[in-house]
TrEMBL record, chain A:
InterPro entries: AAA+_ATPase (IPR003593), ABC_transporter-like_ATP-bd (IPR003439), BCAA_Transport_ATP-bd_LivF (IPR052156), P-loop_NTPase (IPR027417). Residues 18-253 form the ABC transporter domain. Keywords: Amino-acid transport, ATP-binding, Nucleotide-binding, Transport. This is Branched-chain amino acid ABC transporter ATP-binding protein. Pfam families: ABC_tran. It comes from the Archaea. Coiled coil: none annotated. GO terms for biological process: L-amino acid transport. Belongs to the ABC transporter superfamily.
Automatic annotation (TrEMBL), chain B:
This is Branched-chain/neutral amino acids ABC transporter permease. It is a multi-pass membrane protein. It is found in: Cell membrane. Belongs to the binding-protein-dependent transport system permease family. LivHM subfamily. The keyword Membrane applies.
Amino acid sequence: MSTLGPGSDTGRGSDPLLEVSNLTATVEGFEVTHGIDLEINEGEAVALVGRNGAGKTSTFRSIMGLTPVANGSIRLRGEELLEMRPELIPKRGIGYQPESRDLFTGMTVEENFRLPIWTAGEARGIEDEDAVVEDVFDLFEELEGRRDAEVQNLSGGQGKMTAIGRALALRPDLLILDEPLEGLAPVVVENVKSYIREIIDRDISVLIAESNASHVPEIVDRMYVIERGEIVDSGDPEALSSDEEIQLLMQGGGE
Amino acid sequence: MLEHVLNGLYYGSILFMIASGMTIIFGVLGILNLAHGELYALGAFCAFSIVGFVAGQVAAPTGPATTIVFGLVVLAGSLAAAAVLLPVGGALEAAFIRPIYDRDEVYQLLLTYGLLLVLTDVMKFVWGPSPVDVGVFSAINEIPTTELVGFSYPSYNVLVILIGVAVFAWLAWFFDRTKTGRIVRATAINREMSTAIGVSTDRMFTLVFAIGAFFAGFGGAMVSIGPSSASLGMGLSWLVLSFVVIVIGGLGSLKGAFVGALLVGVSSRVVTPYYPQLELAVPFLLMVLVLLVRPEGLYGTWGEIQ
């Protein structure tokens, strides 16, 4: 059996896995989201779709405790994350791939996978470090040959995969991916999409930010549309991404 | 000439023990610790008390065997003196430096300068205003190491050079190979991302500051056991030189601190006997030269592509 499933017992309670309500995040004192409401259930894959600057990254950073929050609540299985020291959030089971990748340069791909296990492995119930690392390499086959490469020497796609793999290595219950497909060559986009589908198949809940709505229906069960820091629509990704109004909005025509 | 080079290596080894902590603290915490020279002085005073005490418990050396025992006792005492700096460094970081990470550099400089003054006064209060000397230097030099190769040079200085190399090797191993060392590096490279994988950056910062304080204290212990004594104000000139060293080596670079310290040590000790008036100028000339050719210093810090 794969060691890459969720680290926590995913028995379904009455609470959703993650519940963001009325979230107002700030950047340098300015409110960048205005009362965001989001819900992700156990095992669900959800997309947050919106243009650049709509508030996707700020929402994700709030969930990870990296950006100040003026108002609202973020609950993981009913537990308030806003009252928690930020380093405990990954230990509670959220893996995070930031938009800018933020790999630990000067270290190898393998070291980047091992670091989260060293810091959060115990909290995530990881007993066999090597097995988890091998599983991440099994998933991202093309990183296998680059195992000992320092991460600054990777291609864009490999870097993105390393960032996702690093988030996956702490056996998250919820994986947050910020624009995992952005800036990649079309062939690589298809690869990364299939990796994300594989991750979802392993019962890990996924929250993805995307600025391109057309990618989304192939990956997720449900999507939210975010515009100027507010959720403006949500529902079935197939229907929403073909909705003309949404398409206009995404192209910047919704002014 | 060889003697001057050895003097330079001795001097450089001590300088490295101070500069290594300064550069690591700068690389990880982003703080230029002006109180670092006082941590070095505190190590020297602690060595006076602790080494003085333990050396008094064993008989003065009478032959090679007893000298080795005596030397080991002194070494253990100096490690104990440096170990005093672990909790002191950790507490200083947690109590005073932690609240100002998000502030402007000016506040950080003012605060560490304030710590410098307070530490000096604490040492004056505890050990008094006059220099103090452990007085074990000549006893340790009973072992004639260099005379075996037909050359007269204090064994103690040779030992300190070897210890300097060992400290560098240990630090390099710690940051390259151990889990904790690599977590510290990750914290230095990207504070936010390391938080997002579960690193308590507070804890890492305290650890790094304590390690830096430990080696500064160890350097101080080496000096006060050696030909010099522990005195108030001894930290100041070493602080300035350490700053020169880490600028030459590259801010935040451990390897740079090692190479820089040996360069500064050897060049100043080789030039000074012939041109004494250049003693202070040589390190700065070296710094100017390096800055002209490589403004970022000889080596990059962790995570920078070299």
